[in-house]
Amino acid sequence: MTDRRVGVYAGTFDPITNGHMDIITRAAAHMVDKLIVAVARNPGKGPVFSVEERVAMVETELATNEIVKVIDVDVEPFESLLTDFAESRGASMLIRGLRAVSDFEYEFQMASMNSYLKPNIETAFLMASDRNQFISSRLVKEICFLDGEINQFVSPRVATLLMAKKP
C-alpha cells in the first residue's frame, strides 16, 4: 500500500512521560497509519538515560499500552536533522505536542524551518490534554531527584527507572 501516512514524533524522552504517551496514542490512533517514535541522541541536553535506555523505555511503555499495541508504531534512535530522518523513513508528517502558549513560539519557528528544508513534510500539532499540560521531563526529573512524588506524571516502570538514577 503506497498511500500509507507515515508520521514521526520525535523527542528526547528523558524520561518518557504520561504527556508523551498521550500524544503518541492520539497521533497513532487518529492521524497516521504508521508512527515512528524517534528518540534523539541529543547529548547536548545532558540526558540522564542513554539513548539505548530511552529507546528501551519507550518500547516498554508502548508494549504495555492497549491502544498502541494494535497500531503500527516503531521506536528508533536518531541523530541527524529530523527532516532528513523523516524523509529517509518515508514520513510525510512530523507530530509535535504543545503544552502551552510558550511552546508555540519555538515550535512555530521550528515548523517553519522544517518546512523550508523539506516542503513535502508537514508539521501537525497536538495540544496536550488538560491533565498533561504541565508535565515536562525536566520537571519530572527535578521533582524525583528532590525526593518528590512522580507517579502521577510517569508510569510506575518509568518512575522506578528514574529513581534508580538519582544522584
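Above is the first protein from milestone M3; the second protein from the same milestone is given next.
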Amino acid sequence: MSGTPAILLMLLIAGCESTLEEPPPAVFDLSGTWELDAGASDAAPDLQEIRRLEDRDVLRGRQRDAEASSIFVTEDFPVLDTPRMTIEQDARSMGIQYADGTYRDVSWGERERGFWTIRAGWREGALVIDSRRNLTRGRETMRLERGGRRLRVDVSVETGGRDVRSVRVFDRQ
C-alpha cells in the first residue's frame, strides 16, 4: 500500500508535464528573421560521429533498438544546424523557413505530420514542441530572452540509439 501514493504522485507529475496551453500568449511573438549566435550556441550535431558511435553500440549490443538512429536528426529537427530562420506566426500556427529552404508548419495543439505525432503549446512562458515517433521522442523548447530580441531553443531527441541534446541561440534581425 505504501507504493500507491508514490504511483499516484508519478501519474500526477506526468499529467502536468504533458499539459500545454494554447493559443500563444500575446507577448510571445516569434515573427521575423533570426540569425544564429554561433558563440552562444552548441555546434550542430556531427552526423558522421553519431553514425560511427551507433554502429559501434549495435555491434556491442549496447543499443536498445538496432533500427533506431539519430543520423537523421537534422532532417527532422532542422533548427539543429540552421544558421538562419524566418518565422511567421498567427493565433493558430507558425511557419518556419530555414536557411536551406526547408519549410515547417507547426500548429498549436496535436497534429500528425508524416510519421510524427506533434503537440505544440506553451508551458511556463516557453513554446514547447513535443514530437513522437515509435521509440523516438523529441522536444524543442523555445524561450524568448532579452525583451524578445533573443530566442533560445533547447532541443532534446531520444532515439533508443544515440541521444542528441543541443542549445541553439538566435538573435532577431
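Note on the second protein: Confidence is low (pLDDT under 50) at residues 4-16.
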